DNA sequence: TTTATGGGCGCC
DNA sequence: AGGGCGCCCATAAA
């Protein structure tokens, strides 16, 4: 496959390297050039660039969609930390700049490039050669190659989702806010209904100047009323029998809504009927995405009713049931657990297998194994299940031991965990740790590495899923730009939302299912692990059925 | 005055 | 003595 690298030069110019052919073109001419090459009879090339978030938004704005890319920043970061990669193959002219490269600024405006002086060091073609050599030279070249491709495809998805946005009904959101909080207050003021709750709490606690957001003040007021509590968590306050508690808890809940997804949030993140958050692919050390603007990965159930499909369109919402336990079955090649994973409910499968008495026990045991529970009900279930599923439970146990020894671990496709004392556990000049403290930290790192291999491999499955889905949705067709066709608008670790013309809802559902099967086969080959989806076709995201398993 | 940290809560 | 994140605030430190 043709690889074409793009490097920015000073001025508004771009160096294009296609095999032995080099040319310099104007930035303004880039969309037309890319569109032309995408239409090559021999198939679309792979675009090689420093950072998808820097190049792709302006292409999308010009109506150009690309099929494939290599995101050198993401892949450099990945390969640097991959245990199966010889780091020396990544060293060379300008490689230190790639080591230091951070994520591009959030693409709030699809601006082009900020002029800085690292341009000549970021020759994409040279870094591309090093990355190709690093992958090829690894004993795990096939898996790493897949990971690099999936990571890059994820970056394309992220840019496309920000470009398209989640269809968002301002009127629905504002009606919701008005009902729960009252009319929009002037800047800096508390909404009326929150104010009333504060007044009630103050009255009730006989503290006329109480700031309900202040922990010390709240603790003191409660003490005066005769209640000694250790903290002001909602779950703690629930147990206090005092008339101030009910309005206080309601205040806390609504204040959170006001602050996090209130009018200010709308002003900042919703425009033109679309919610456009910013995603950070591989933003967490496990390879999961994070979101550094808009809170896309954590917008609460409460405001999801405002995510409503356009007229004549629907939202197709799909989530994977018990993704991580299934991934564990696959990566450990535990045939007994994989058998239990046939069908819609893995936990029920374990019950039917006779491994455990109830569904709840199965869930407790599996989650306990993945998170490193050592005590309580969960801890006890782990012991029993280890005998039934030795490969699966042994794998996470081994990862925990490795972490406790200070060793790094890796996901199925080869992403490495950050080293102990590295980015994982940053405390520059920690006070001279005593032995107990040292021990605690090693155990904590062991719990982290235990979870890392599962959460990280789960993230890899999800990347393969959305990468394949992206292409399938494109092939479903329609004419015109990306957002005139069925397209992804949201991705939340194990769940996606597709915005699609109503007539294509069933077809989209079929592609979601096929893409999940493809992802399973890519990661686990012939080992048959099911990844059943719960699919809802809805107008409003709030109506999607979510079995909370 | 600005900056860093931790509690509390939201999501998976 | 249970993993990963972001965001908001109050608070403490600088």
CATH superfamily of the largest domain: Ribonuclease H-like superfamily/Ribonuclease H
> What number of structural domains do the residues give?
4
Q: Uncertain spans, ≥5 residues at pLDDT below 50?
A: 107-117
Helix content: 40-55%
CATH fold type of the largest domain: Nucleotidyltransferase, domain 5
Give the strand tally: 14
What is the residue-averaged pLDDT? 90
Biggest sheet, spatial arrangement of strands: 3-2-1-4-5
Give the termini distance in whole angstroms: 42 Å
Architecture of the largest domain, CATH level 2? 2-Layer Sandwich
Structural class: alpha+beta
Oligomeric state of the chains in view: single chain
Which band does the percent of strand residues land in?
Answer: 5-15%
How can the largest sheet be summarized?
5 strands, mixed
Shape: globular
CATH class of the largest domain: Alpha Beta
| Rg (C-alpha, Å) | 26 Å
Fold topology:
Layout: E1 3-9, E2 13-18, E3 21-26, H1 30-38, E4 46-49, H2 52-61, E5 68-71, H3 72-81, H4 95-100, H5 124-136, H6 141-164, E6 166-167, H7 170-181, H8 192-205, H9 215-224, H10 234-237, H11 245-261, H12 263-269, E7 270-271, E8 274-275, E9 278-280, E10 290-293, E11 313-320, H13 323-332, H14 335-340, H15 346-352, H16 359-371, H17 376-388, H18 390-404, H19 435-476, E12 487-491, E13 495-501, H20 505-524, E14 533-538
Parallel strand pairs: 1-4, 4-5
Antiparallel strand pairs: 1-2, 2-3, 6-8, 7-8, 9-10, 11-13, 11-14, 12-13
Helix pairs in contact: 2-6, 3-5, 3-6, 6-19, 8-11, 11-12, 13-18, 13-19, 15-16, 16-17, 17-18, 18-19, 19-20
The chain binds a DNA duplex (12 and 14 nucleotides) through residues 211, 213-216, 231-234, 252-253, 255-256, 259-261, 283-286, 288-293, 295, 297-302, 323, 367-368, 370-376, 378, 440, 443-444, 447-448, 450-452, 454-455, 459, 492-495.
